[in-house]
């Protein structure tokens, strides 16, 4: 049943992705036709941050007079491109490190508003229940994008599966920075949305929190959970030109509000890693 559930979720995300491609020009027209900026579209990926937008952000945005539509995307690439192109108004699906690198590499004019509570990357396996059981030569699934691969390498290093070179920048670690492959593991690079399914063909997989959540994986059964640093906590992003305008400042006010904190603390997001500013 768990396998069927994961396959169903992945099939759904694929359908969502195709429908978004087909409807791209229609979405763009809708955003551009909004004169007062109170009808907004927020991009998400299936998982905890999509739920956070629907269950926490939307009611608070509506209190400020916004009409909110939530658009789901099946990967990390489309939401930033859609935001930069004006097809959506904001997104919540990525951490600061990914946003900065992706926007720089692709010349996008998008910026982070504020960090929010975030679910760390988890190490999952259908074969083993502890790190000690992982055998020499194990196949380990990791994300294929640079910033999330660096996160995975750090989790492996913290758990003594590999050793990274001294003084390596943890946010930029690559396979070339592996100083010692302690368990002689084989890294299998997989697109983030497919990592949950990769558990069936690998010994262990390191899965970003949103995809692990969307696939129904139980964090109480994770072999390890990533200790999150601030640059790996997720952010609400808007176009850079909107950062200091009403949309950007309204998002910032909502995130910093006691009402937002109370809503988080009384929800299924209460155990997510909190930002440093959270007091």
UniProtKB/TrEMBL annotation:
GO CC term, one of those recorded: membrane
InterPro entries: Lipoprotein_NlpA (IPR004872)
Keywords linked to the UniProt accession: Lipoprotein, Membrane, Palmitate, Signal
Family affiliation: Belongs to the NlpA lipoprotein family.
Protein localization: Membrane
Secretion signal span: 1-21
Pfam entry (one): Lipoprotein_9
Organism field: Clostridium butyricum E4 str. BoNT E BL5262
Keyword Membrane in record: yes
Protein name (database record): Lipoprotein
Membrane topology (UniProt): Lipid-anchor
